[in-house]
Amino acid sequence: MNKTTWAAVDDYIVDALFDADPVLEAVMAANHDQGLPAIDVSPAQGKLLSLLVRIRGAKRVLEVGTLGGYSTIWMARALPADGKIVTLELDPHHASVARSNFERSGVSERVELRVGPALQSLSALGAENAAPFDLIFIDADKPNNPNYLAWAMRLSRPGTVIVCDNVIREGAVLDEDGHDANVEGARAAFSFIGGDKRLDGTAIQMVGAKGYDGFAIAIVE
Length: 221
Prior knowledge:
- With 221 residues, the chain is an alpha/beta fold.
- It has helices at residues 3-17, 22-33, 43-56, 70-78, 92-105, 118-127, 145-154, 181-195; strands at 60-64, 84-89, 111-115, 135-138, 161-165, 199-208, 211-220.
- Strand 6 and strand 7 form a beta hairpin.
- It starts with a helix and ends with a strand.
């Protein structure tokens, strides 16, 4: 098995289970045309996030790392009419592209986009005594995973679902002695989730169009 097969299976999943979605295709095209890095979640992963929002019955979602808003749109579409997703993006250009994508997909009223360093935005949410979130998706700079998870705990309540992306790193998460900051961030996510007795979690290895990686998923008890 190789990446070509994994990508072909991803295509099969989409063809077999998803309706055609010209809007999301246009979102991905806009991201490419605007020079955004091709690090969005895959369609199958986006659908998983959407289903998690629905399974949880979430009304309030927090996303750390917007990029062009592809994953944001998947989750926003799954929210009820009175739901809201707060998404945090560092790069003003990425944020501008995301806003256009939210308008294109008709979810702008459900999305609050905050621009700036995520830790500052999270601190601001804490200072505002923001209501707890029902689902939190962390997909930003990996070295800050433990800081983002710490804030996720502050902004959650029992029953909150926390999802952390890119925690397998092509299997490099096994490297205890490596010096790759992203791998160290992935290992730190495992250490945080495994070491906090308020969290009950697991991780799912994934192969597909995005290569070999995975999600860590935990629930606040």
